[in-house]
Structures are given as C-alpha cells and as structure tokens.
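Saturday, quiet lab. Running sequence design on the structure tokens for the scaffold JK sent over.
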C-alpha cells in the first residue's frame, strides 16, 4: 500500500484501528469471555466446563459460577494466577486472563441468578450427619457450623463467603481435601508408608477453612459435601430474607 498523505493514510488504516478497538472492547465484555474466551486463546471459553447457564457440571467437579459474589470470583482467579490455589486446569486459564478480563467475567457471573435453595424439612438432624456438621458444627473440636459464615442454608454471603448450596458434592469435597492435605503415614506391619500431601489450596483468609478442613474426618467431609450438594436449585423466586434452617 502506497501512503502519500495523512488523510489517505487514515482512509486505509482508520477502519482497521476502529475494528481493533472494537475487538479489544469485546474481549473485556464478561459475557463474551464466558462464550468465546479471553483475548489470549489460552483463556478458554468458560462455558465449555462451567456450562452455558454457569451452573457448572456437578458430576465432573466443575463448580457453579452463576450468582457467586463478584469479589469472590475475582479473588479466586487472582489466587490461581498467584499459585495460592493449585489446579492444573484453572491455573493456565486464569493466568491468561488480564486483570480487566477478570473483573469483567466476575461481574458477569455475579449478575447471573443466585442459587435458590428449596425449603428443607425442619427437624433435628442425626448427630454426626452431614446436615449436623453443616447446621451445628462440632464445637468440641472447634468446628463451627458452616452456615455461620456461608449464610443460612449455605446460600453464601457477599462479598467473601461463597455459597455451598448449589455446588456439586464432588467439587465441595475436593476443596476440603485441597485445604486439608494429608499427614504422612508410617509403615506398619504389611502396610506401606504413605507420604504427606501438602495442601493445594492456601488462599483462605486467616486459615479459616484450612483449620476446619483439617479438623474434619474424611467421612465428615464427604457427608457435609453431599448435604450441601443436595440443596437447591428450586424454581421459587429467590428470597434474600430466607432463614429456613436457623
Ligand atoms: C477445561 C475446563 C475449564 C474451563 C474452560 C474453565 N474452567 Fe474454571 N474451573 C474448572 C475446574 C475443574 C475448577 C475446579 C478447580 C478446583 O477443583 O480447584 C474450576 C474452578 C473455577 C473457579 C473457582 C470457583 C470457586 O467456587 O471457587 C473460578 C472462579 C473459575 N473456575 C472461573 C473460570 C472462568 C472465568 C473461566 C473462563 C475464562 C473458566 N473458569 C474456564 C474448569 C474449567
Ligand atoms: C469462620 C468462617 C467460616 C466457617 C465457619 C466455614 N467457612 Fe468455608 N469458607 C470460608 C471462607 C472465607 C471461604 C472462602 C475462602 C477463599 O477466599 O478462597 C470459604 C470457602 C469454602 C469452600 C470453597 C467453596 C468454593 O466455591 O470453592 C468450601 C467447600 C467450604 N468453605 C466449606 C465449608 C464447610 C463444609 C464448613 C463447615 C464445616 C465451612 N466451610 C465453614 C469461611 C468459613
């Protein structure tokens, strides 16, 4: 292309500049990141794992993002980037998002419908069951009830406490294991020694969740994950004042 004058130059390049500025605008549109991914191709479309409605894929351990607090989502993406939360799938994706894209996609997911918990039977849960841990904790081991921080029925509390209701049981249990890690087991008789597993999630403020996860037994982790995994999603309109389980 032969460029002879500034005005002619603009006639050729102007529309191109306009197009690139539109494209970069589109990349910071949260909805577009969900559907098509970020500007860097390594930031794959979120919908392929977190589902088109953002409710995740419970059986695969892909969490729900729809209706989670924006600040919580953005924090997780920064924590994956910083290596405070280790995950082979999400770390490269989060690292490929710009800070602007993180904010945009977090805001777009937060604007989706929150989990809507179906009414629960009122009654005393069986001692030691998942519901018992969730609603009463195990104070003899300094384990508070989960609903103390995660809101009534585990619906979450903006901005820092994510919902547990509406998340898949597999994902919830994985997170508890990630915080707890596992101590080494010495060889005894015919059993082989098992090496310690370091926690892979180390991003909770003041080690709140690390302490709780490490204090739960494997059976309790599974039971409480299954309890919250079995709550929600009801089709009733969301009622922010609900305190059905308290
Ligand atoms: C290839 C599958 C895949 C894709 C694509 C994907 N994710 Fe994920 N995502 C996962 C998995 C698996 C986890 C759970 C990781 C774990 O167990 O710690 C996760 C976890 C997350 C979490 C943590 C949720 C929580 O409750 O703490 C956020 C936030 C997240 N992803 C955001 C995104 C965004 C935004 C995109 C699109 C830019 C995206 N993901 C694309 C698989 C994926
Ligand atoms: C003292 C407050 C507190 C209590 C009590 C508490 N949590 Fe949490 N929990 C948190 C905070 C804060 C986070 C978010 C940490 C972060 O920023 O990643 C969290 C996150 C989680 C997550 C990760 C959710 C996600 O989307 O990745 C799970 C799972 C969880 N908590 C389970 C439980 C269970 C089960 C109990 C009860 C046995 C419980 N929590 C009690 C404060 C609490």
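Result came back. Writing it out in full:
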């Amino acid at each position: 292309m032969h460029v002879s004058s500034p005005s002619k130059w603009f006639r050729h390049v102007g529309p191109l500049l306009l197009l690139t500025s539109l494209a970069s605008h589109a990349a910071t549109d949260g909805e577009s990141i969900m559907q098509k991914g970020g500007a860097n191709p390594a930031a794959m479309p979120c919908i392929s794992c977190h589902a088109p409605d953002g409710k995740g894929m419970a059986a695969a351990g892909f969490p729900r993002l729809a209706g989670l607090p924006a600040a919580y989502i953005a924090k997780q993406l920064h924590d994956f980037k910083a290596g405070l939360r280790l995950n082979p799938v999400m770390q490269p994706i989060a690292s490929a998002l710009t800070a602007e894209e993180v904010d945009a996609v977090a805001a777009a997911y937060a604007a989706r419908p929150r989990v809507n918990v179906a009414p629960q039977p009122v009654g005393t849960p069986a001692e030691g069951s998942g519901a018992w841990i969730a609603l009463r904790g195990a104070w003899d081991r300094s384990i508070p009830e989960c609903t103390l921080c995660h809101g009534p029925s585990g619906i979450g509390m903006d901005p820092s406490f994510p919902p547990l209701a509406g998340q898949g049981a597999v994902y919830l249990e994985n997170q508890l294991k990630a915080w707890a890690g596992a101590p080494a087991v010495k060889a005894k008789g015919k059993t082989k020694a098992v090496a310690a597993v370091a926690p892979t999630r180390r991003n909770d403020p003041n080690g709140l969740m690390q302490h709780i996860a490490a204090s739960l037994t494997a059976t309790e982790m599974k039971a409480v994950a299954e309890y919250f995994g079995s709550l929600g999603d009801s089709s009733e309109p969301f009622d922010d004042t609900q305190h059905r389980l308290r």
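Notes for JK: The CA atoms of residues 184 and 196 lie 4 Å apart. Residues 130-229 form a domain with the Cytochrome Bc1 Complex; Chain D, domain 2 fold (CATH 1.10.760.10). Ask whether to fix the surface positions before the next round.
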